[in-house]
Design brief:
Strand order of the largest sheet: 1-5-4-3-2
Order of helices and strands: HHHEEHEEEHHH
Oligomer: single chain
Radius of gyration: 47 Å
CATH topology of one domain: Beta-Lactamase
CATH architecture of one domain: 2-Layer Sandwich
């Protein structure tokens, strides 16, 4: 029983250990998957700057387009309201000053096809009130400022005929005034407006790409020089005669840092070479004195082994003194 109990306890203790072993493997797999997808979504400085500038440019052009469209709608509504007001005054005065027996002929003449027409109004007429869009709201607001609203009906459609319909009354007789206008604000918007928009956007994007490239070129030069310096090479000095002030300051600082590193490397080589010379000279003198002494062979071999070890240490120092900064080679 005790053996069975110990086996069960051992099994329960091993299960968490196995779970702990599996968990890091799964975490490592998840990290590997995330790291495999991460470079796909990573952009360089040029891509990020170009994307941000493009996004803000498209946003600004969209806002500008909305402002222009709203301004044109308001201007168009004001013009149509003034035109309708003039036509309404002319129609009212013409009917008012015409003799009643001649009004039918006058209405027939005023109903001839044109930009403005006058028709008799009946109680059974079915019309759509004005105010179905922002443009119609602007038009209605402007007309209310120019024309007295008492006894006036404003409609946008009558008998499936769209336009600005104004119902008015002259001597207890009701009439309709139709003022025709184009309902599309930009008739050639798709053909001309979008083409000019794409041309403007293309020129702006080309300028943005050129400006971003001019900004990222010095950074690319700095990255190349930094890699050369990290590999133990001597990069050419970065230009400090033209460019933005911030870039020139960075280039000047990097050039000074590279000069300081080269000076420190040169001082290190001189110091290690001097140490090697100062150590090898007395070692050579000691070796000569030991060979001329009367020590037995065993002592001579021991002393010779110690001196060879010192020579090996000196050789390692000389390996470290190389300009490339390579590690010393094993004997």
């Amino acid at each position: 029983m005790s053996a069975l109990k110990s086996d069960l306890l051992r099994g329960h203790q091993e299960e968490p250990l196995q779970q702990d072993k599996v968990a890091p493997d799964s975490e490592h797999a998840n990290k590997h998957k995330s790291s495999s997808f991460r470079p796909i979504l990573r952009f360089g400085l040029f891509g990020r700057a170009f994307f941000i500038i493009t996004a803000f440019m498209i946003l600004s052009l969209s806002v500008w387009g909305m402002v222009v469209v709203n301004a044109l709608e308001e201007h168009r509504a004001n013009q149509l309201a003034e035109r309708a007001t003039s036509a309404l005054n002319i129609a009212q005065k013409s009917i008012q000053y015409a003799a009643k027996e001649n009004r039918s002929a006058l209405i027939i003449q005023l109903a001839t096809p044109g930009d403005t027409q006058v028709f008799p109004r009946e109680e059974s007429d079915s019309y759509l009130a004005l105010g179905e869009s922002r443009f119609e709201d602007l038009l209605k607001e402007r007309l209310s400022q120019l024309v007295p609203t008492t006894g006036i009906i404003l409609a946008s459609e009558l008998s499936q005929e769209r336009g600005l319909w104004i119902g008015f009354t002259v001597d207890d007789e009701s009439y309709w005034l139709l003022v025709k206008y184009r309902h599309d604000l930009f008739p050639n918007l798709i053909n001309e407006g979008l083409s000019w928009l794409f041309i403007t956007l293309g020129i702006a994007l080309f300028g943005a790409a050129l400006s971003v490239r001019m900004l990222t070129k010095p950074l690319r030069q700095l990255a190349i020089a930094s890699k050369q310096l990290a590999h133990g090479e001597n990069p050419a000095p970065l230009p400090t005669d033209k460019g933005p002030t911030e870039i020139l300051e960075v280039f000047s600082t990097f050039n000074q840092m590279a000069m300081d590193l080269r000076a420190a490397e040169s001082d290190r080589e001189v110091m290690l070479a001097g140490i090697s010379h100062d150590l090898r000279t007395p070692l050579a003198r000691l070796r000569l004195e030991i060979e001329m002494s009367c020590f037995d062979d065993e002592a001579l071999n021991a002393i010779d082994g110690d001196m060879e070890q010192i020579e090996h240490c000196i050789a390692q120092l000389m390996e470290y003194a190389r300009p490339t900064g390579e590690a010393p080679k094993e004997p």
